[in-house]
Each structure stands twice: as C-alpha cells, then as structure tokens.
Design a protein that fits this description.
Protein name: Cytosolic protein
Organism: Metabacillus lacus
Low-confidence stretches: none
Mean pLDDT: 78
Number of domains: 2
Pfam families: YlbD_coat (PF14071)
Structural class: mainly alpha
Radius of gyration: 35 Å
Shape: elongated
Number of strands: 0
Oligomer: single chain
Length: 132
C-alpha cells in the first residue's frame, strides 16, 4: 500500500491524533509509541475518558485561563469585602503626609527642580559667539 492509500481506520486515527495533540508530545518524549496509541484507540474507541488528558491544548489553556480569571476576581472581591474603609483612609493619609514631608525636605536641601539656579540672562547656546 502506498501512503495515499492508507487503511480507513488509519486515516481516522490520524484525524483523531490531530484533535489530541498531547499524544504527539508523549510519542516524542518516548513515553509511548504510535502502535500503543493505535491499539488503545482501536480497543477503547474515540469517546473513552482516557483521551481527555490528550485533548486539544488550546481548549485546555482557555479553560485554565478562564478558571484563573475567575479565581482572581473572587480573590479581589473577597479582599474588598474584608477591607476596612477607615483603616484604608488612614493609610492613604499617612502615605500622603510622608510624600509631603519628603517633598519639603527636598526643597530645603535644594534638590527640587524649582530650587535650581535660574539665570534668565544666560545664553541658550554654549558658544560665546555674538550675532551682528
């Protein structure tokens, strides 16, 4: 038989493998052979629960990302529920006061942009040439 004239069961197995890409990864890692997969597929059929773990990677990734998004949202909602508004307001005020204190120190030490030397008569050009 040539490659174009494969047995119908082999053709349907190839289609099945395309729907279950993790099988390819296992064969490449040397954990199983195509013969073993084919025999299991032939005996168990396509609808056996064994094949779920070899299922479509993209669908599993989408399910995992949806679950992680839901868990993140639920964690955020739980944090908001347990948050004390008064304590949060006090913390924000403390941070604001700290920032104001740091800005005041910087101004006293001359580290702010406004405290730098401002010479309005200084030429814009580094060269001392004058225009006629």
């Amino acid at each position: 038989m040539s490659v174009n004239n494969l047995h119908p069961s082999v053709e349907s197995f190839k289609d099945f493998v395309k729907k279950h890409p993790k099988m390819i990864q296992e064969v490449r890692k040397g954990q199983k052979t195509w013969q073993e997969f084919y025999e299991e597929w032939y005996l168990l059929g396509e609808n056996d629960v064994t094949w779920k773990k070899y299922g479509d990677v993209e669908v599993q990734q989408e399910n995992d990302s949806a679950e992680s998004k839901q868990s993140f949202v639920s964690q955020m909602l739980q944090a908001v529920k347990t948050m004390d508004a008064n304590a949060m307001n006090q913390n924000i005020n403390k941070v604001s006061n700290t920032i104001s204190t740091i800005q005041g120190l910087m101004e006293q030490l001359g580290l702010s942009k406004a405290a730098g030397p401002q010479n309005s008569n200084a030429p814009n050009s580094p060269f001392s040439f004058r225009k006629d």
